[in-house]
Design brief:
This protein is α+β, with helices and mostly antiparallel strands. Helices cover about 35% and strands about 35% of the residues. The longest helix is centred in the N-terminal third of the chain and has 19 residues.
Amino acid sequence: MLVALERFDLRIPGCGSLKEKRHVVKTLTGGIRSKFNVAVAEVDHHDLWQRTTIAVSAVSGDAYHAKRVMHEVEKFVERWAEVEVIDADLTLHAPDD
């Protein structure tokens, strides 16, 4: 078993309020969740209007599949018009046997 975890540090330049930010983040995370069947959560910058960090995780039996899914998620986020990717960090975690 392998867990892939990717953290996206995002800028949301069009937001003027936390309500607008929530709408963008909920739409983005919902799209990721439904398209890729992965877990998604906002994990940082909760109080800033134009910044957010989301984390995406997937569980797989092999590294190739986990990396492929996360690469597709990364492309999806980069194409999302309302956000700019500041940084993305992928890590793979395997239990100690």
